[in-house]
């Protein structure tokens, strides 16, 4: 297996390897996992269904942990647990993955990561981008790092994906997934790296207003929301990003604990079919 970095910031392509082999080969799996922790998102081409079956797609993901179910997206009929993200003329490209986000921060335990395969894609367009949120944290000015140390933020499903849902559905979702609170800076459980952990699902800073300091005499609510917006914007910096051009049978594996991503919706009225196994993560600290 060869590992070729795609940018200075994030992402590497794995070549000369079939992901299916890593289901049964521990050494290969460990090598891929080490590359994932280092590069944060890995890409592979030509992982056809006859080489990497749907069952093996799920089995590879299950080496990382238990599979997550999705409240809205349907599962594949032959592979329950594999979520279909199919954008077709009957299910036209909508506007819910084209926001910089970290998967499932509206849950108590956001996803550890995902394994996403492209089944069908438009001739051009429909790329996905990822951002390195460890680097985004590192590059913050020292006084901002100090200011956000110990801050907690609230995250809501309704803040992003559900904004366009009918109210009764939205309320049902809220009952099932009450808002979750997570540290603004989380520690990666395996690498120990600090990660800037706010995104499109983050609604407000929970304990900023209680800070016992006056900040330029400003209203704390406004200052807190300015600070949150500034932190959320860090993922938008191209210096922290990689952009991946899909082909059928390309696969991306991302560490959701250290990244955000954005699926570019620029391909209507073309089709795009993706299949995704998400892995349950732990509670951020
Ligand atoms: O379709 C994609 O490229 C990614 C969509 C997404 O946000 C996800 O699978 O979590
Ligand atoms: Fe996502």
Task: Give a description of the structure.
This is Taurine dioxygenase. The chain has 285 residues and is of the alpha+beta class. The chain has seven helices and 16 strands. It has helices at 21-24, 26-39, 54-64, 133-138, 142-148, 167-176, 220-233, and strands spanning 2-5, 12-15, 41-44, 75-76, 79-87, 113-120, 128-132, 152-155, 180-183, 185-187, 194-196, 202-205, 241-244, 251-255, 259-263, 272-279. The strands form four sheets. It has an eight-stranded mixed sheet with strand order 1-2-3-14-6-16-5-4, covered by helices on one side. The longest helix has 14 residues, at 26-39. The chain starts with a strand and ends in a 6-residue tail after the last strand. It binds 2-oxoglutaric acid (AKG) and fe (ii) ion (FE2). Fe (ii) ion binds next to loops.
Write a concise synopsis of the structure shown.
The protein has 7 helices and 16 strands. By secondary structure, it is α+β, with helices and mostly antiparallel strands.
Number of helices: 7
Distance between the termini: 34 Å
* Percent of residues in β-strands: 25-35%
Structural class designation:
alpha+beta
Point out poorly predicted stretches.
none
How do the strands line up in the largest sheet? Answer: 1-2-3-14-6-16-5-4
Element-level helix/strand string:
EEHHEHEEEEHHEHEEEEHEEEE
Q: What is bound: which ligands?
A: 2-oxoglutaric acid, fe (ii) ion
The chain-level mean pLDDT equals 91
**DSSP strand count:** 16
| Biggest sheet statistics | 8 strands, mixed
Shape: globular
Q: Classify the helix fraction into a percent range.
A: 10-25%
């Amino acid at each position: 297996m060869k590992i070729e970095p795609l940018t200075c910031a994030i992402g590497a392509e794995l070549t000369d390897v079939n992901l299916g082999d890593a289901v049964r080969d521990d050494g290969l799996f460990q090598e891929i996992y080490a590359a994932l922790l280092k590069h944060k998102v890995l890409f592979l081409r030509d992982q056809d269904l006859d080489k990497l079956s749907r069952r093996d797609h799920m089995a590879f993901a299950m080496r990382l942990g238990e599979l997550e179910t999705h409240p809205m997206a349907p599962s594949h009929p032959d592979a329950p647990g594999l979520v279909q993200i199919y954008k077709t003329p009957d299910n036209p490209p909508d506007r819910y993955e084209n926001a910089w986000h970290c998967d499932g921060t509206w849950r108590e335990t956001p996803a550890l990561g995902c394994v996403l395969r492209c089944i069908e894609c438009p001739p051009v367009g429909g790329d996905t981008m990822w951002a390195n949120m460890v680097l985004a944290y590192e590059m913050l000015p020292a006084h901002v790092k100090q200011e956000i140390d110990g801050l907690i933020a609230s995250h809501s499903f309704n803040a992003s994906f559900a904004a366009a849902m009918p109210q009764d559905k939205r309320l049902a979702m809220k009952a099932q997934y009450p808002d979750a609170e997570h540290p603004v800076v989380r520690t990666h459980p395996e690498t120990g790296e600090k990660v800037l952990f706010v995104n499109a699902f983050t609604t407000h800073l929970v304990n900023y207003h209680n800070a016992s300091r006056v900040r330029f005499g400003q209203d704390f609510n406004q200052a807190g929301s300015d600070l949150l917006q500034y932190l959320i914007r860090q993922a938008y910096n191209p210096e922290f990003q990689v952009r991946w051009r899909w082909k059928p049978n390309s696969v991306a594996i991302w560490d959701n604990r250290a990244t955000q991503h954005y699926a570019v919706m620029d391909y209507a009225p073309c089709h795009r079919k993706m299949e995704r196994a998400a892995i349950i993560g732990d509670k951020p600290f």
